[in-house]
Design brief:
transmembrane; 11 helices; mainly alpha; 91% helix; HBM; Helix Hairpins
């Protein structure tokens, strides 16, 4: 991973955490999209379940409506009319509500037909009620005319019997018999609506009318003639009312058989088709949702594992890529502080802040090496001076022994003056040369120290920049940890949403139980209807079966939702692990920042000491200049003494040979 050495520290840490955060966001997006897909399927399934339950209510109310119609046709109970109308209105309302829950065009078309047929059924029942009212009005006329005819004929029979008019009594009895038979078959027809009963009633009425004409022709008594005539009129009224009742009943039965008996089964069949289509779609949605959940779980786990692996790898690479060279730099600086110049400066080929710091340290090391070499040269020169001084002392002693005889001839003052002058002159010249050399060396040392100080300042600046980058990286790490925590909260929110979906599943289960109860009530009502309700009992059982299927499907969805919740919790655990890893990276960044701060402090101390050394070197240079000036003044004084001693040169001629030998010995040093 050498390419990391060419990337700035801030970019390393920021890039690593940025990719880790992107992976965390990717986990959230994948989980969100998966839950959205599952939620969409579940919403559709829930909508279908609600529509199925609602259409079940339509079916149940339609059954109750048809049972009410049958009960009304059997009993003609006026209270039943209101019940049937209310059931019909409820059926229509439930059908319209069901239509509002559906968006599939085919199902909408089917429900539109159901709504239209229910509306036609209600209108047909209204016509049945109207025809039934017409029938009841005519039956009332028949109920009023029949007893009066019977009373008149009975009175004719009694009067004729009292008057011993046997023929009139006999004929009145025949008419009364025909009337009673006509009423009997008329009432039987009203109950059975049998065409045979109707025809028999008409024949009996015809016979009664003929008998009434014969009776009227045989009567002579005015009162009996009046009663017979009135009876004939009432028979005509009865016949007319019975004909009108027959028409009303025929029209009513035509509506029942042509409309109601056709529309009722048709609506039931259409509702059954709707339920089967819904069940078919639910059977498709179940496997689709299951596959989507499985894919979401797999994808979330894969992305979470990849994110965790990448975070751990990034933490290791970034941490080692910063800590290892910084640690090596710290060790190298410690050895330099201990004057160990054999140490190798690491990371000089890096292109980041560590590389810049390494280059500054390399300059610092080179300057220390130059200073050490300069100090060694000065020490060698000092030792050479000491050796020369010792040799000079030995030659001087030898010289003193050789020329002692000659010096006796010269006055002690001249000898001492000459020796002193020469010594002063040589010493002044030597001091001048040495002072000049020392001044030059001091100036060079001062320059080198200034260079070292500049390098130390540059090193301190580089370490400060590294410290700033590490602090910035620590902040990025903290932000990444906060972002990971926020992603963790989002996934926990998704887990809570999955729990809420479970509550909705429980609600659908309750609706299915209510549908089952409604089907049970419809079964009970069908049982009460007897033979006429058997068909409805079958449909009620189908509604109950649908409710059970809905409950079973809801239970399966609940199991799938529990699986989603479990996997969502697993994703939460994985994200919490990633948050922990990012926290550890944050701690590593903080440790690096502390180490860099300590290194910065050490470098600043070195820079300060170097500046002080530079100041001391400058002071030495100034003192050396003073020594040089003093040496020059000493040389001037020596020259003056030498001039003063010129007068003694003749006396020292004899000493020249000895001096030449002395000088030869000095040159050999």
């Amino acid at each position: 991973m050498k390419f990391l050495n060419n990337i700035r520290i801030g970019m390393k840490i920021g890039g690593g955490f940025g990719v880790a955060v992107l992976l965390l966001v990717l986990i959230g997006v994948v989980a969100g999209l998966a839950l959205t897909s599952v939620g969409s399927s579940f919403n559709e399934y829930r909508g279908l379940a609600r529509a199925a339950n609602e259409v079940g209510r339509v079916q149940a109310n339609m059954l109750l409506t048809r049972m009410g119609v049958i009960n009304f046709l059997r009993t003609q109970d006026q209270a039943t009319i209101k019940t049937v109308q209310e059931r019909g209105d409820a059926t229509l309302e439930f059908a319209k509500e069901t239509r509002g829950m559906v968006d599939d065009p085919q199902r909408l078309k089917l429900l539109d037909e159901v709504v239209a047929n229910i509306d036609k059924y209600r209108a047909g029942f209204a016509q049945v009620v109207q025809r039934q009212g017409e029938r009841d009005a005519q039956v009332k006329v028949m109920d009023e005319a029949g007893p009066r005819i019977e009373q008149n004929l009975t009175e004719v029979m009694r009067s004729a019997y009292r008057d011993a008019d046997a023929e009139a009594a006999y004929l009145a009895g025949l008419v009364l018999r025909d009337l009673l038979l006509a009423r009997l078959y008329a009432f039987r027809y009203l109950d059975s609506n049998s065409q045979a009963d109707h025809d028999r009633a008409i024949r009996e009425l015809d016979s009664a009318e003929q008998g009434q004409g014969t009776l009227l022709a045989s009567l002579q008594n005015p009162e009996r003639r009046r009663l017979a005539t009135e009876a004939g009129q009432l028979i005509d009224t009865y016949r007319t009312a019975f004909g009108a009742a027959f028409s009303a009943i025929s029209a009513r039965n035509a509506i029942v058989s042509g409309e109601l008996d056709r529309l009722g089964p048709l609506v039931a069949s259409q509702i059954e088709d709707f339920k089967l289509d819904v069940i078919k779609r639910q059977d498709q949605l179940g496997p689709e949702a299951e596959a989507a959940i499985a894919a979401a779980i797999t994808t979330t786990i894969i992305v979470a594992v990849v994110a965790a692996v990448f975070a751990i790898a990034a933490a290791f690479l970034i941490g080692s890529g910063i800590a290892r060279p910084v640690g090596a730099m710290t060790a190298a600086m410690r050895r330099l502080a201990e004057n160990d110049l054999s140490v190798d400066i690491p990371a000089t080929d890096h292109k980041d802040e560590v590389g810049e710091m390494a280059k500054s340290m390399l300059v610092f090391k080179e300057n220390m090496q130059k200073n050490r070499e300069m100090a060694a040269a000065q020490e060698a020169e000092r030792q050479a001076r000491e050796t020369r001084a010792r040799r000079m002392e030995e030659l001087t002693k030898e010289f003193d022994a050789n020329v002692s005889g000659v010096l006796e001839m010269v006055s002690s003052a001249s000898t001492e003056l000459r020796a002193t002058a020469e010594s002063l002159s040589a010493t002044a010249e030597q001091s001048n040369r040495q002072a000049t050399a020392v001044a030059a060396a001091t100036e060079e040392a001062s320059t080198n120290v200034q260079t070292v100080a500049s390098g130390a300042e540059e090193l301190s600046s580089s370490i400060s920049e590294i410290s700033r980058q590490v602090v910035h990286s620590s902040k990025i790490s903290q932000n990444a940890a906060d972002e990971a925590q926020r992603t963790n909260d989002i996934v926990r929110g998704l887990a809570t949403s999955a729990s809420r979906i479970g509550e909705v599943v429980a609600l659908i289960t309750d609706i299915a139980d209510q549908t089952n109860l409604l089907a049970l009530n419809a079964t009970i009502e069908a049982a009460r209807a007897g033979e006429a309700g058997k068909g409805f009992a079958v449909v009620a059982n189908e509604v109950k079966s649908l409710a059970n299927q809905t409950a079973k499907a809801t239970e399966e969805i609940s199991q799938q939702i529990n699986a989603v919740q479990n996997e969502t919790n697993a994703a939460v655990d994985a994200i919490e692990h990633i948050v922990k890893v990012i926290g550890e990276i944050n701690e590593i960044s903080s440790a690096i920042a502390s180490a860099v701060e300590e290194q910065n402090a050490a470098t600043q101390e070195i820079a300060s000491n170097t500046q002080q050394a530079a100041a001391g070197t400058n002071e030495v240079a100034e003192n050396i200049l003073g020594v040089t000036q003093a040496a020059q003044e000493t040389g001037s004084g020596a020259e003056q003494v030498l001039e003063a001693s010129g007068q003694l040169s003749e006396q020292a001629t004899s000493m020249r040979r000895v001096v030449e030998g002395f000088l030869n010995g000095v040159r050999s040093l």
